[in-house]
């Protein structure tokens, strides 16, 4: 099953926990007096990153991360929820200091905002049935399920030309096809697959990888700050590095992502 994986060994960056902060950049100098507090802006509709809890409170990985950042560098912080389409203008108009809401780095946004270093990247992963599960109904080691038109499908077309892609309308359909032995494996977004695996613990597992590609899967999650807010950006980067070094980031990651999509 894994005979072709050696082709892209250099692309697979296996690790047990995410570690995207530059731990070699020991930049510890910033002026807390120039910050005072960091007012984070987020949304409330993207679980498990940011959402409303049962009591109406903001919850999620990003909410915990914002609190950890401020604790780590000893500054006050608040987190406010805004509609997605208003996040940029709210920060520009002085309603907040930083956006922590999975804002992608695009050329247009790079002209309007500055960004922290990446703290979380979403790799692509192969998902297969666990040992002892039924074999595929049609034995074909080259077939792999993908969401039609997805970045994962494009990645395979570019780097795994020997594979026969089986398109599905969405990732869940591709994963269900693996579960019910219609195909041997699927190649999908690792984060979304991790939640599906959490729902199907006796069925399937990750196999090989993870596979990272800025071209196909993006630069990863960063925190946006107002253009020119170098002191705030530097302080956030320092906090992210420290959280990586002391293990607190890993604790937050495992709290909100019970199936590790990096392992």
Strand order of the largest sheet: 5-1-6-13-7
CATH architecture of the largest domain: 3-Layer(aba) Sandwich
Overall pLDDT level: 87
CATH topological fold name of the largest domain: D-Maltodextrin-Binding Protein, domain 2
Cα radius of gyration in angstroms: 20 Å
Order of helices and strands: EEEEHEHEHEEEHEHEHEHEHH
Give the biggest beta sheet: 5 strands, mixed
Low-confidence stretches: 1-15
Helix-residue proportion: 25-40%
How large is the share of residues in beta strands? 15-25%
Can you tell me the CATH superfamily of the largest domain? Answer: Periplasmic binding protein-like II
Whole-number total of structural domains: 2
By DSSP (H or I, 4+ residues per run), the number of helices equals 9
Give the class-level CATH name of the largest domain.
Alpha Beta
Structural features:
263 residues; alpha/beta; D-Maltodextrin-Binding Protein, domain 2; 2 domains; five-stranded mixed sheet; three-stranded antiparallel sheet; 9 helices; elongated; disordered N terminus
Task: Give a brief description.
The chain has 263 residues and is α/β, with parallel strands linked by helices.
Map the helices and strands.
Elements lengths: L36 E6 L2 E2 L3 E3 L5 E2 L1 H12 L3 E6 L5 H6 L5 E2 L7 H6 E3 L8 E6 L13 E5 L3 H9 L4 E5 L2 H9 L5 E5 H10 L4 E8 L2 H4 L6 E3 L3 H17 L1 H9 L7
Parallel strand pairs: 1-5, 1-6, 9-10
Antiparallel strand pairs: 2-3, 3-4, 6-13, 7-13, 8-11, 8-12
Helix pairs in contact: 1-8, 1-9
Structure description:
The structure is a single chain. 31% of the residues lie in helices and 21% in strands. With 263 residues, the protein is α/β, with parallel strands linked by helices. It folds into two domains: 32-120 and 220-256, D-Maltodextrin-Binding Protein, domain 2 (3-Layer(aba) Sandwich), CATH 3.40.190.10; 122-217, D-Maltodextrin-Binding Protein, domain 2. The strands form four sheets. A five-stranded mixed β-sheet has the order 5-1-6-13-7. A three-stranded antiparallel β-sheet has the order 2-3-4, with helices on one face. α1 (61-72) crosses α8 (230-246) and α1 (61-72) packs antiparallel against α9 (248-256).
